[in-house]
Amino acid sequence: TVGYRAARTLTVEVYSNASGSLSVLFNQEALYSDNTSIPPALGALPGDASPFKVQAPSFIHPTISQSCAYPSCLNTFTVYFALNVPLRSGDSDVILIKGLIGMISDMFVGLLPEEQGNGANLLLSKDGSTASSALWNQSTSSLMLKVAEGKVVMPNVTYGFQFTATNPSLAQAAPQVLLAHAGNTKVISEIEFPKSTVGLLSQDGVMVGTAAALQVLPRHFEFRKTVQTTSYPEAVNTIT
User: CA–CA distance from 142 to each of 18, 22, 23, 51 (Å)?
Assistant: First the structure.
């Protein structure tokens, strides 16, 4: 159940015992919900400490970034995400990364560990049995990651992994990339990855937004410089 809060009341009664003590009764009073506190959990919001408030199943704070914004370069993508519900292999839970427009890859994609990723690559599989892998669908521009057999993706944990693929040969703006779910027992709404505003270092300096996934720069000369050996008149000059 999502978003409902039950009415709560408190009644205290003290009954007389065998020695004949008097009863003390408190009037029934309503308990007030805490609508401002934030529980110590990923994705918690003000008011989530109110008893019986339940969030909708969802992804929490997903991010995706890239290491290279050049055309046709081998690119390393880094993905982070968390959930407020568990994903299990027994429920046929699948994570989908959609909208990777222009990415070029083989059908089977290896997942690499990320230092602060809590072993996400070991929990995900292209087919359920082969850990640290994913399935790429070029026609739909999507990456499918099943929960590996016997594994559970736990709630309230930030997971991360990396994978490599090739950038398109032509320049393009960063596409809208979505994180989605499919499975038998729960419905988790898809969510858009925010586009990174981080800049990658290049010969031209840091270019803002080039870490956004599949942002590809136009082909250009990145470093341009000429120099000569002398400015004397009638001298033999070497220009580099």
Answer: 74, 73, 69, 39
Beta-bridged to residue 148, according to DSSP, are: none
Under a CB-based contact definition with an 8 Å cutoff, are residues 112 and 208 in contact? no
Contact 122, 132 (CB under 8 A): yes
Which residues, 6 or more positions from 224, have their beta carbon under 8 angstroms from its beta carbon?
Answer: none
- Sequential pLDDT tens for the chain (240 residues): 445 455 555 555 555 566 666 666 667 777 777 888 899 999 999 989 888 889 999 999 999 999 999 999 999 999 999 999 999 999 999 999 999 999 999 999 999 999 999 999 999 999 999 999 999 999 999 999 999 999 999 999 999 999 999 999 999 999 999 999 999 889 999 999 999 999 998 766 678 889 999 999 998 777 788 999 999 999 999 999
Tell me the three-class secondary structure of 159-196, residue by residue.
EEEEEEEECCCCCECCCCCEEEEECCCCCCCCEECCCC
Q: Structure pTM? A: 0.82
Residue the block writes with tokens 């008097």: 22
The structure tokens 């000369």 sit at: 221
Radius of gyration, alpha carbons of the chain? 28
Instruction: Give residues with Cβ within 8 angstroms of 171, minimum separation 6.
Output: 71, 216, 217, 218, 219
